[in-house]
Every structure is written in C-alpha cells, then in structure tokens.
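Researcher: Quick one. two chains, 667 residues in total.
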Amino acid sequence: MRLRLTSRPEPSRAMLVTSPLLAAALTLGAGFLLFLALGQRPGAALHTFFVVPVSSRTGVAELLLKAAPLILIAQGLAIGFRANVWNIGAEGQLVLGAIAAGALAIRFDGTTSLWLLPAMVAAGILGGMAWAAIPAYLRTRFHASEILVTLMLTYVATLTLSYLVHGPMRDPQGLNFPQSILFGESALFPTVLAGTRLNVAVLFPVLVTAAAWVFVAKTFAGYQMLVGGLAPLAARYAGFKESRTVWVALLISGGAAGLAGVGEVAGPLGQLLPTVSPGYGFAAIIVAFVGRLHPVGIVVAGLLMSLLYLGGEAAQIALQVPYAVTSLFQGVLLFCLLGSDLFVFYRVRIGRRLPAGSRA
Amino acid sequence: MTDLLVALLAGTVAAATPLIFAALGELVTEKSGVLNLGVEGMMLMGAIGAFAAATTSGSLPLGVVCGALAGVATAALFALLTLTLLTNQVATGLALTIFGTGLSAFVGQGYVSRTLTGLQPIAVPGLSRLPLLGPILFEQNALVYLSLLVFGAIYWLLYRTKAGLILRAVGESPESAHAVGYRVIRIRYLATLFGGALSGVAGAYLAVAYTPMWVEQLTAGRGWIALALVVFATWRPERVLAGAYLFGGVTILQFHAQALGLAVPSQLLSTLPYLATIVVLVVISRDVQKIRVNAPASLGKPFHPGD
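Model:
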C-alpha cells in the first residue's frame, strides 16, 4: 500500500482552514493515548488539561497573560517566515528586552515618574532589536545563516542574564539568591482585572496584531517581502532588495520579542530572574506556523498554545503528570499541522500500485 | 606546564567526540539533500534513551545501542514527515528539536537524580606509552575510538565506494538520480536514519561517558553547533573532524581558565563556544562561491518523483 500524491494546481482553500483543525484533533487523539499509557482516565485527564484551567475568571486572565507574549512574538516571526527569514532566536531577543527594561527599573528604583514605564518599553524594544540586528548584519554582510546565529545568540543572552542576576544586578539584600530587587510600582504595568494578574500589557499583542495585518495586507513593503519569500528570483528581477527584507524581518521580530520580555519582567515576574520565560520564544515559532503565518490565525493559535501551558500546570498539580508534557504536546501539535499540510498542496489517494511511468 | 597541556588536549578530544558523531551523521544526511535541523532533538532522545537503558540494565554498551536506536526512531519521524508527507524541512527540523526536548524531559523525569558509573578509559597497549600523544589520544573511552573509526568509515564510504557516489548524486541532482533508476526517497530515508543513529550515539556519549548523568537539555546546544560545523567544514568529513577538535578546545578552555589565570565570570566564559560558532560561521560564509560549490545542490528541497 502506498500514498499516491498529485500536486494541486493551487493550494486548497478549504484544506487551508481545515488542516489546523485536523491537527488539533490529532493532537487531542495523541493526548488521549498518552494519558491512557500513563494509567490516567483519558477523558477526565483531558478535561483537567483543557477545560478546568479556563473555567474561572482567574483562569481566563492567566490564559490571556500567557497568550500575550506568544502572540506578540509570533506576529513578528511570521513576517520573517513568510519572507524566508528564519529568526529562531526570539527567546534570546526576549531576554535582552527583559535585561534592558530591568536595568532601567533597577537604576531608577524609587522614582514615581510616569515616564519610567514608557522608557522601559522603549528600552526593551530597542534591546530586542539590537540583539536581532547582529544576525541581520552578519547575514546581509557575510551571508551567515540567521538560523544558527540567532540560536547561538540565545545561549549567549541567557548566560548573560544569569551572570547579571548572579552579579551586578543581584539584590544586595536578597540573601545571595540570584535575583534582582523587586521592581517599584512605577516600573510595573497596572492590573486591569481586579483580583488577577492581568495587566495593561495585554493590549500590546492587540495593537501589534492590527499593525501586522496592515503591514501584510496593505503596505508595499509587506508585499515585497511576501514575493521575496514565494519567488526569490521574481523579487530580484523586480528590484526588491533581499538585504532590506532581512533587516526589516529581523528588526520587527526582535523588537516584538523584546517587548514581550518587558511584559514579563514588568508584569507577572516583577523582577529579573535567571529565567524570564518558559520558552515563549520557541513556542512562538509553533504559534506562527499553527496560525498559518496569518495575523488572525496567530491570535487563535496563541490562545491554544497558552492553554497548553496552563493545562500542563493543571495536569502537574492534579494528576502528578510531569510538566514536560506541555512541550511534548507542543511538538506533536506542530508535527500534526505540518503533516496535515499535505492535504493543502496535494491530492492524496491510497493505492496499491503507482501510476504508470513513476517510481518512488 | 606539560601536565596542563596534556589535560587540555585530552579534554579537547573528549569534548569534541559528541560533535564528531553528530556532525558526521548530519553530513551524511545533508549529502543526500536532506537538511535535518533536529540534531539537538535527536541527541537529547539518544541521551535519555542511553541513560535510561544503562541505569536500568546496568550495561553501558546496551545503553549506547539504545541511544542510537532512540536517535533512529526520532529521525524516522522526521523522514516520514519530510520525505513521505513532503513537509517543509526547516519547519519540521525545528519541530523535531522542540519535540525531542519535551519528550526527553518527560521520559527523563524519573532519572534526574540517578547516578551512573560512566564509561571508563581504555589504554591502548603500547600506544598509550607514547609521550604526550599517549595520554591525549590513547587513554580515552571506547566511544572516542569509535568516533575515529566512524570518521574513517564515512570518508571511505563517501569517496571510495559506489554507494557514496550514489548518495552524493542523489544530493546533487535527485532528478538525474531518479531518471537513471535510483530510488531517491529510499536513499534519503537511509541517510536520514543514519544521521539519527549517529546523533543518538552523540547524545549517548554525553549521558553515559562524558557527564555521565541526565538533566533536561543535557546537550546544551551541541546539536546546533554540530549543524554549524557541517557548514564550517564545507561538507567535507576531514574538516568536520578538524572543526570538532577546534570547538572541543574552545569548550575545554573555560574549565581551565582559572588555572590559566583568567578572572572572567563562569557564565561569560560559557558563552565562548557559542560566540566561536558565530565567528567561524561568519568567516566561512563570507565566501558565497565556496558554499555554493560545496553544498549539496538539492539541500533542503523536497523531491517528489510523481511531479
């Protein structure tokens, strides 16, 4: 028995929408089997994982709180991915954003100025951009793969943060724990929903999503980058500059990741710690793909991914299942989605024999 | 001084060994035209597979074999997606790393505090008595010797056998190879699985010989450094070997920094291998022509015989 594939003349629009749903269903199926294998009652376990976390006001607030950085970063990454620029080091750019904003919060601790928070936001965005500018320069000037450079810089960024909270930025009264002072009120985003941790930073992904939609659908630069990704030769022929695409893609995604870093340290964390993100920068790659690199799709995918994080925490507490089950689900979801994409681009039949004239 | 030098160089060889396995495996995979960015994920699966098998059975060789098999199984997932279901190789490779990181952490939960007596050095009779070279090269564990054997075998396979010629033909021009009757997809499957096996052994080496223990993300980016090494080596096995020892040296330098009188915080010293990777990548990539001539022409491009 073999798969027989025939290319579709153009991608199937129906499958483009159906395949993420198919992938989600397959992931649920995999979860069912996984919990069964772990000796849990699968139905109850899936309920704990996917329903319980969002059945309270606090739960919904946490869902939005975790979805915010994911959506923010994924919107930036998607602009690059569409143009074949692979920034996979958003985690490092997030860390740089956190360091830049945290440095201001520590330096101006005790101030009541309303300017501190906007300054931290600006510093975070610039920090992320600066970190992403390194791979942009090395790619455009020396043709060095941005995949490897962004990833290597992620390790450098996390080690630098670790050095800072163990050394220069450590809380002098902190009993030698590797953490900074707790930020003052003027360095924290105000809460918007009483009794929860949801803060005004939740507006950033909303604004960035709108901006991403305008950039992709309405601007010439967005169009140029799309062409550059789909048909590099045509783009070159039309005089679109590849180096500009690389710069724009990396600066936008780096800035968005840096902003997400500010959101973490000036939000739920409220200080600098050796780890400021549970892998949002990597999970956002999945969010971008599951969202079909489309601004609206990314919002849906970001909420789904956030639910996976919450579900992992709930499962850990209620079912004593290791928290790593979250990244397991993340990987499975992306695999299923990539696999389901087959139906978008090909007609699939299952047959015993290959059509005449071809061999596999 | 000699003692320090010997310690440095012997440490270099030990630190380079996982990079040799992983990079040579990826080299063979890439020679067939398949770009598998999931090396880090396959190494992690190999590491936990080996550690779990070794602690449970008490047999280190069995652990290494299980590590290789875990790598093969992870690579099979990648091959199924990219070669049969024709998914994007870059995206699937990233997914494989995320998946491997998660699954290894999940499986490894119960093994975090377990201890293991690692693979012991075996002195090669005669050769280990050589001054300098003896203690550096010939008082290592079996996997270090195996890495050199694997290097020789791959070199011989690629450049002295018909199988190597076919493999390279498939990577350079899958259409031509297909037209003259070679089974491109089958060959790419084999090359990908072989790469997975070696990545698995690389992870196993870390888990049962080098460290030897299990923690989440034990590989610490070595899979990505191995990927960079393949580019650095312009797809030549002998340069992979040289590059791996260079990186091993950089890695080991941080552990001896204090003895050398360097007062740099340990976290900043730990960034050295990653910074070195970037520098080396820049130096090698600036010559576009060199990369274009040496890279397998169909690298990363899907091939579908029906089209």
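Chain B has a mean pLDDT of 91.
Researcher: Thanks, that's what I needed.
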